[in-house]
Amino acid sequence: MISVIILGAGNVATHLFKAFKTSSEVSVIQWYNRNLDALRPFSNQVEITNDLNALKDADIYILAVSDDVIGELSSKLPFENKLVAHTSGSVSVYDLDKKHKRAVLYPLQTFSKDAKVDFANVPICIETIDKKSYPLLKQVAKSLGSPTKRVNSDQRRVLHLAAVFVNNFTNQLYRIGHEITEGEGAEFDMLKPLILETAKKVQDMSPFMAQTGPAKRNDKKTIKAHLKLLEKPQHQEIYKLLTDSIQNTHGRKKL
Amino acid sequence: MISVIILGAGNVATHLFKAFKTSSEVSVIQWYNRNLDALRPFSNQVEITNDLNALKDADIYILAVSDDVIGELSSKLPFENKLVAHTSGSVSVYDLDKKHKRAVLYPLQTFSKDAKVDFANVPICIETIDKKSYPLLKQVAKSLGSPTKRVNSDQRRVLHLAAVFVNNFTNQLYRIGHEITEGEGAEFDMLKPLILETAKKVQDMSPFMAQTGPAKRNDKKTIKAHLKLLEKPQHQEIYKLLTDSIQNTHGRKKL
Ligand SMILES: NC(=O)c1ccc[n+]([C@@H]2O[C@H](COP(=O)([O-])OP(=O)(O)OC[C@H]3O[C@@H](n4cnc5c(N)ncnc54)[C@H](OP(=O)(O)O)[C@@H]3O)[C@@H](O)[C@H]2O)c1
Ligand SMILES: NC(=O)c1ccc[n+]([C@@H]2O[C@H](COP(=O)([O-])OP(=O)(O)OC[C@H]3O[C@@H](n4cnc5c(N)ncnc54)[C@H](OP(=O)(O)O)[C@@H]3O)[C@@H](O)[C@H]2O)c1
């Protein structure tokens, strides 16, 4: 049994705790948060604490706390030479205090407190400094049913950046779709199957091959009509910029 | 049995033909294309023709041809007062020759020749000028298992515009994710579950509620680091513009 202590009580910490509860290889022996209230609902399932000095001995300490405080919290841990992993996409492994065996366990997925998470759909990027820690973290990730990948800090940073494009920015395009349809008495609901299909298509086809539409076809008449239809200048800017981007990718002339 | 004649042999026409083959309420009695070669593979399943004067009598003529030629082809049809529907998102119902009972049957989905289509995931937007044609077209769409919606030309145009955002532009964001990961030795494959989850999330949550990430949090440090990491000026522009758009939506300060 691998013993784990989780630090933090946010989205990632909570989903990790729940997932570890179902694992037969990993046992969460203690859960820390600076504010104990967030942990109380779980106090009958695990020992909780808000005192760093009360932390027990464990195989792995997982720091699922805000990016900005990872370094500081790792320094405050009152022990050394133990395996300490953070869960951030953008923080370097070297931000952890070097008194620890430093590592990263970055779940490349979007977590919200309410939404259920199936860890089979959560690729986990692992980085370790010492070689011995790697198989242990891999076993932990595997016990959640997650695919894993060894990813260094540079690659992880790039994956996190790409995640902003395919998750946050894509979601904002959905939002714009929502605004322009509902604004005209049409229904955003009508677009939902298309949204899903667009995401499914690139599961086994490259986005390059999957592209269609007026920008790729350089259908000037439709592009012009669309720009006229858009009421907000910023939506027009986004339309122009992404049309131009598609045309650069597919070797068409600029607008 | 509702008799249908399809005109055109592209993506939409071909998927419609295949779907109608499985319908017990609709029979495709003839298939027209200006170029007969595209239809030959189906010649043992349906009567094919490239001669407009050979068109039979049918309940509905579906013009699944390029947007630019819908008006012209409808004028060339050697009959009048029959129900003629086009399948375009952006062409007005009034572009059809007024000698016909004019209508639109717009499938709000992305079709490619190879990809399989389940019409249960294809909302069909119906517009008719005369009232009597509406129930007939609705029955046709229902026989494919498709959800249907009465949508006028203005709403349809807006849905088509929104479809460009959530489909073509979103796919281009996937493409950029592909470029920046593979360019740095990371794997685009790692992002696929996130892409799917992002699309699934807005099936029962508004895109407004689903938003997360550095732009929404106004995490200036991460935004700055991401802009530095992006090599192409156009990717930086897209990053800035969509970050700004998210911040406008969520009431944060500008970059
Ligand atoms: N959310 C995602 O989708 C996602 C995905 C992959 C990776 N990550 C990474 O996972 C980590 C946690 O993210 P999250 O979304 O779970 O964050 P979150 O929900 O905002 O939770 C942040 C946690 O950090 C704690 N914290 C903040 N400041 C602290 C301090 N000074 N000392 C001690 N604890 C402090 C908070 O404690 P309180 O409860 O007392 O406020 C809270 O438990 C981050 O590194 C993030 O980049 C997040
Ligand atoms: N593809 C989609 O995802 C999608 C989704 C919803 C709606 N639509 C709409 O459905 C319609 C058809 O789209 P599609 O994607 O199926 O197009 P497509 O694959 O490009 O096929 C176009 C068809 O139009 C025919 N055509 C072109 N010019 C013609 C002319 N002058 N006279 C007669 N026929 C002509 C072509 O004949 P040849 O075979 O001889 O070239 C071909 O059969 C369009 O209005 C489009 O906006 C498409």
Would you mind describing this structure in some detail?
Chains A, B: It holds the Pfam family DUF2520. The structure is a homodimer of 255-residue chains. The first copy, chain A, is an alpha/beta fold. The first copy, chain A, folds into two domains: 2-151, 3-Layer(aba) Sandwich (Rossmann fold), CATH 3.40.50; 156-250, ProC-like, C-terminal domain (N-(1-d-carboxylethyl)-l-norvaline Dehydrogenase, domain 2), CATH 1.10.1040.20. Chain A is 42% helix and 15% strand. In chain A, strands 3-2-1-4-5-6-7-8 form an eight-stranded mixed sheet, sandwiched between helices. In chain A, α3 (133-143) links the parallel β7 and β8. The longest helix of chain A is centred in the middle third of the chain and has 30 residues, at 153-182. Chain A is elongated and about 70 Å long. Chains A and B meet through α4, α5, α6, α7 and α8 of A and α4, α5, α6, α7 and α8 of B. The structure holds NADP nicotinamide-adenine-dinucleotide phosphate (2 copies). One NADP nicotinamide-adenine-dinucleotide phosphate (NAP) binds next to α1 of chain B.
The CATH superfamily of the largest domain in chain A is identified as: NAD(P)-binding Rossmann-like Domain
Number of strands of chain A: 8
Q: Biggest sheet of chain A: strands side by side, in what order?
A: 3-2-1-4-5-6-7-8
Succession of helices and strands of chain A = EHEEEHEEEHEHHHHHH
Structural class label of chain A? alpha/beta
Q: What is the CATH class designation of the largest domain in chain A?
A: Alpha Beta
